[in-house]
Amino acid sequence: MQAEYLTMAKVAFIGLGVMGYPMAGHLKARGGHDVTVFNRTAERADKWVAEHGGSAAPTPRQAAEGADFVFVCVGNDDDLRSVTIGDDGAFAGMKDGAILIDNTTASAMVARELEAAAKAKGCGFLDAPVSGGQAGAENGQLTVMVGGDQATFDTAKPVIDCYAKMVGLMGPAGAGQLTKMVNQICIAGLVQGLSEGIHFAKQAGLDVEQVIGVISKGAAQSWQMENRWKTMDAGQYEHGFAVNWMRKDLSIAIEEARSNGAKLPVAALVDQFYGEVQAMGGGRWDTSSLLARLARD
Predict the structure, then answer these.
(1) If you average pLDDT over residues 213-218, what whole number do you get?
(2) SS (H, E, C) 145-180
């Protein structure tokens, strides 16, 4: 049966935000799958259907009925529970043997909860948070960090590949979310360092473009430097991954660290800095707006 999924499967996609909307589109256009969507704001689901085809359902349960794969991409743990558990949740509509793939960035705890709920239903579950931002979602170039068992992963991977450039199984349920926490911890420190470097260059009277042109060819190079220095230098932040969402992600990582004993002094400090950006009115600005905090008079 797995080979059939390389051509077409019946798929549900729940949550059509800035990430989910294009991800669901790739499942339809690139994968050729039969896609039914659900979104809390029905108008957005109707817009997706008008653009991509497929169909829309009024509840997660109805979207999931008959699906081989059910994808979820919502905001947080509570949102996730609201669309998967209960009479109108996806699990209530899923058939035996179907697989729920959760692309939400959430806690490892809720991933394990949902895996247990899936097993009780006779279904598979993968926690599969993504990295790559809105541009990665739109271009089908996301990195997907997966937690779950090998057999479920092997069945689902050809479908996940529709919106991904890299898909890796990191361990059992929850391991995908834990890996995403590592990702966000690393990004927090990188963006703060890049912000301080650009700020220092400006204060020192250096040409930022020249500086980046040189140091980006050496050990300081990073994705953030390559993709964000120009907009940072120009003070443009109305794009990318929102500060509000980064704070949500960092809070998950910091909470997990309290239980596993990890020390996250830089991540905790940068989280406070993002709080200052929010107070400046930048809750929806890109995470690179840490520079705006330094540039204040």
Answers:
(1) 98
(2) EEECCHHHHHHHHHHHHHHEEEEEEEECCCHHHHHH
